[in-house]
Automatic annotation (TrEMBL):
Matching SMART domains: AAA (SM00382)
Pfam families associated with the record: ABC_tran (PF00005)
MF terms (GO), sorted A to Z: ATP binding; ATP hydrolysis activity; transmembrane transporter activity
One cellular component (GO) term of this entry: membrane protein complex
Keyword RNA-binding (UniProt): no
Residue ranges, annotated region (Disordered): 233-253
Species whose genome carries this gene: Gallintestinimicrobium propionicum
CDD domains registered for this protein in UniProt: ABC_MJ0796_LolCDE_FtsE
Annotated ABC transporter domain residues: 9-248
Official protein name in the record: ABC transporter ATP-binding protein
UniProt KW keywords: ATP-binding, Nucleotide-binding, Transport
Top-level taxonomy: Bacteria, Bacillati, Bacillota, Clostridia, Lachnospirales
Highest taxon of the lineage: Bacteria
C-alpha cells in the first residue's frame, strides 16, 4: 500500500437493527473503520455475524438504521435509489459466489456486457474484454460459453467482468464459495495481484479464515461488531499461514 493513504471507504458509528415481531436484531451494532485506496480487506465472521448486512450497506443496497457511510468522498446513506444506481455504476464492481454469467453469451461477450451500459462502442468493448480475459489467463476460452467452462474458469470470467469497467471499489461476497481449494487459491491470488497493480480497493466478506489470509487487512466481525483488525501488509505467504494457524488455535481454545 502507498505511504500516502487515501481513504476510499469510511464507516462511522454504523447500526442496522431489524425488527422481527416484538424483538430487535442488532445485525450491525456500532461499526467504525476506514479502508484505503489499493487495499484488499477481508471481513471475516461466522454465519449470522453481520457480514452480508455490512456489505449491503456499503454497496447502498440497504439503508442503515443509524450512522455514516462515505464512499469515494460521497455520503451514500441519504442517496435516492436512482442516485445509488448511478453511483454503483460509476464506482463499484461486484463479484458474487454464484457467477451470474449469461449462459447464451460467450466469455468475451459476458465480460464486455457492463461496458454496453456505459455506452462504449463495440470495437472498444471487445478489445477491453479481450485484454481482461488475457489477464485472468482465459485467453483461449474467449469464445466458450459458461457451460463449456469449469467452475474456476467461470469465476475468473466473473472477476474479469467486475474489473472491465475499472471500478475504484470491488465488493466480493464469498467469491470462491463454490470452488475447490486449489482453484480458490488461484482466484484469490489473481484478485490480490490485480487490485495491487491497478490500485483498486477490494472488500471481500467470507466465513473462511484461510481466504481472509490473502487480504492486506482482516476485519473480524462478531455479533455486528468489528472486534479486531489484523494488519497483514507486507507479510509473506508463510507468515500469513503461520498467523492463520495461530488464529485457528486461539479460536479452538
Ligand atoms: N431482513 C432481515 N430481517 C431480520 N433479521 C435479519 C435480516 N437480515 C439479516 N438479519 C439478521 O441479522 C444478523 C446478521 O445477518 P447477516 O446476513 O448479515 O449475517 P452473515 O454474517 O452474512 O451470515 P451468513 O454467513 O450466514 O450469510 C442475523 O442474526 C440475521 O438473522
Amino acid at each position: 500500500m502507498a505511504d500516502n493513504k487515501i481513504p476510499v471507504i469510511c464507516v462511522k458509528d454504523l447500526y442496522k437493527i431489524y425488527r422481527v415481531g416484538e424483538s430487535k436484531v442488532r445485525a450491525l451494532n456500532g461499526v467504525d473503520f476506514t479502508i484505503y485506496k489499493g487495499e484488499f480487506c477481508a471481513i471475516v465472521g461466522t454465519s449470522g455475524s453481520g457480514k452480508s448486512t455490512l456489505l449491503n450497506m456499503l454497496a447502498g443496497l440497504e439503508k442503515p438504521t443509524k450512522g455514516e457511510i462515505v464512499i469515494a468522498g460521497e455520503h451514500i446513506e441519504n442517496k435516492t435509489e436512482n442516485q445509488l444506481v448511478r453511483f454503483r455504476r460509476e464506482h463499484i464492481g461486484f463479484i458474487f459466489q454464484s457467477f451470474n454469467l449469461l449462459s447464451t453469451m460467450t466469455a468475451l461477450e459476458n465480460v464486455a456486457l457492463p461496458l454496453t451500459f456505459q455506452g462504449v462502442d463495440k470495437a472498444k468493448r471487445l478489445k477491453k474484454a479481450s485484454a481482461l480475459l488475457d489477464l485472468v489467463k482465459l485467453g483461449k476460452y474467449k469464445n466458450h460459453r459458461p457451460t463449456q467452462m469449469s467452475g474456476g474458469q467461470q469465476q475468473r470470467v466473473g472477476v474479469a467482468r467486475a474489473l472491465v469497467v475499472d471500478p475504484e471499489i470491488i465488493f466480493a461476497d464469498e467469491p470462491t464459495g463454490n470452488l475447490d481449494s486449489n482453484t480458490s487459491r488461484e482466484v484469490m491470488e489473481l484478485m490480490q495481484q490485480v487490485v495491487h497493480e491497478k490500485q483498486q480497493t477490494l472488500v471481500m466478506v467470507t466465513h473462511d479464515n484461510h481466504l481472509a489470509s490473502f487480504a492486506d487487512r482482516i476485519f473480524h466481525i462478531i455479533d455486528g461488531k468489528i472486534v479486531r483488525i489484523d494488519d497483514m501488509t507486507g507479510k509473506s505467504k508463510e507468515e500469513r499461514e503461520k498467523e492463520e494457524k495461530k488464529r485457528e488455535e486461539e479460536a479452538s481454545i
